[in-house]
Amino acid sequence: MSAALNGKYLQLLACAEDFENAAMPSGWSGTAATAAAGASKRLIEEGKEWAAEIAAIRRASGDAADAAAGVLAGLKEAEGLAKAHNFSIGDDGAITDHGLPPDIPEEQREDVERERKVVASELGERVKQTLLSAEDVDNDFCAVLDPAINGHTIDASGEGTSLAAAGNAGEALGSLSIPAPPAVDAGPAANAAWWDSLSKQQQERLIKDHPGLVGNRDGVAAWARSKANIALLGDEKQKLLDERTELMRHAPADPSRDVPSVHRYQEQLAKLDERLAALNKVEGIMVGPDGKPLPNRQLMSLDVTGDKVKAAVANGDVDTAKHVAVFTPGMNSSVETNLDGYVNDMQSVRESANRMVGDLSGKSVATVTWLGYEPPATDKLGDYVDVIGGGAAQDGAEKLARFDQGINMSRPDDPHLTALGHSYGSLTTGIALQSDTGVDDAVFFGSPGISDQPYGDGIGGRSIDRLHVPEGRAYTLEADGDPVADVGNITHGRFGEDPGSMEGMKQLSTHGAASLLDGRPLAASSGHSEYTLTTPDGTDSTSKYNMAAVVAGRPDLTISR
Predict the structure, then answer these.
(1) FRET partner for 300 with CA separation of 20 to 30 A, picked from 8, 30, 211, 443?
(2) Are residues 542 and 421 in the same domain?
(3) In whole numbers, what is the pLDDT of the chain averaged over residues?
(4) Strand segments (E) across 269-339
(5) pTM for this prediction
(6) Nearest partner of 499 among 429, 546, 547, judged by Cα
(7) CA proximity to 370, closest of 422, 327, 425
């Protein structure tokens, strides 16, 4: 159909010169000439309308075919997910649950049942979004066809409009819209369903024209989020620079004066500079000296709302890696001060994990440093014990849970997903894991506790039952001389039981040892900040080695305490 329309369109444009010459033959005048001119004008107007109609239908047909391919891909994704978990989708969109597969071992049935509830909800969203996208394509196509059928695609009565210009106008009018995304607060399942129902061309158009709709949407593929966020990075920097320039224009005449107006100015300037430093830090992590994005890095979130800039950076390809780890840092962490250090640490863990799975290509493992929340900042343990509450962790946990869910839902196959939480980040991770995140393994290190309920009220618990991770898949690391890991004892379980004494929690070593993979020596960690230590001579710490073993899905290589 598209080829036939294109042929007719080109034939019509070839008649443009003949139309112009027929408008008024040279030297002809009188009543007949006037009548001929009127007939020629009507013919030219009809030609313009035809050109617009054909161009509009040609464009709309191509867009509709492209959009339909996206809808079919979304449907295929839903059907594959349903089949993998013993569901089916009827022709009417109804989802049928065929029950738990009989070959599931008894000790795994509870975990699988919980996972299937999540899948059932996701399937509902996918069917809903696929139908919405199909309806959107149908309505848009009809909105182009109806005027064309009735001869009202454009107003062709104006003077000086050529056939080509009329065709260009029709081409623009024939462009179909892209299905609108779910609401801003929609869950990862709805976002994944919407994204998967779009064609690759529609996805690329959205990233180019509306990156803000893509970059921070949990459930969207990591490649797309990264591309959108890198595009947003420059825009956000320029906004801050413009704001800073405007603020400087109104700088106080004497900035040394101790008056409220000077204090406000200094505070505003310091805040802008802090935010600019954060964006510069992200840019340094993501973009090379040539201005091009660095390979094997993905900017999975960039959030400039709130008091602090927030971001999530991946090493490796989250869309394809078999093993994915999400690391949540703790107190005194911020994008502008130490995000780059954390990203480097996680790259080192990734390299170790790839060695453990025997992957020389380095593609089997991806690690994400998630600073999508604002952890507390304090320099003294006493301040931490007396002042820090769990509010930031609770807020961060909700975002982290959605982020983890989004990784699973953005992929046709679930990766082996590991949650890593350090310090206050372990509290955030522990609260997040009370939701159905799809996390398969969890490692808590330097942890003050992993619950939003104090142990003393009977809810915080002595076991890990509240964590939705498979049995035997929760681990803790506590280095000698780490005061934060003893906060649970000092504060009488403000954040639940000390993870090291919780029933079902596996304790891994942080002491010097020898690798069970290749016999290489491993160094001891001490204090609160050496869990991912690599010594100057290149020796990994035992704690880092243990983390990598869990991330690689090799618990047989872990060294117990």
Answers:
(1) 443
(2) yes
(3) 85
(4) 297-303, 310-315, 323-328
(5) 0.84
(6) 429
(7) 327
Indicate the pairing of strand 416-422 with strand 323-328. parallel
Q: Which two tokens stand for residue 464?
A: 């890990």
At residue 79, what are phi and psi to the nearest 5 degrees? -65, -40
Q: pLDDT, tens digit, for every residue of 469-499?
A: 998 999 999 999 998 887 765 555 678 888 8
The amino acid at 253 = A
Domain contains 149? yes
Distance CA(178)–CA(348), nearest Å, equals 41
**Residue 432 burial (C-beta neighbours within 10 Å; 0-12, 13-18, 19+):** buried
Residues ≥6 apart with Cβ < 8 Å to 277: 336
Under DSSP, is residue 368 helix (H, G, I), strand (E, B) or coil?
A: strand
Q: Give residue-wise pLDDT tens across range 58-88.
A: 776 777 787 788 888 888 888 888 888 888 9
Residue (of 475, 480, 469, 479) closest to 502 by Cα position? 475
SS3 per residue for 110-160: HHHHHHHHHHHHHHHHHHHHHHHHHHHHHHHHHHHHHHHHCCCCCCCCCCC
47 lies in the same domain as 195: yes
The pLDDT of residue 123 is 86
In the chain, the number of structural domains is 2
Same domain, 506 and 364: yes
Report how far residue 414's alpha carbon sits from residue 100's, in angstroms, rounded to the nearest whole number: 18
Neighbours of 423 (CB within 10 A): 27
Residue listed under structure tokens 């890198």:
230
Out of 352-361, 378-387, 435-444, 515-524, pick the least confident.
Answer: 378-387
Distances (CA, A) of 173 to 56, 134, 146: 6, 20, 12
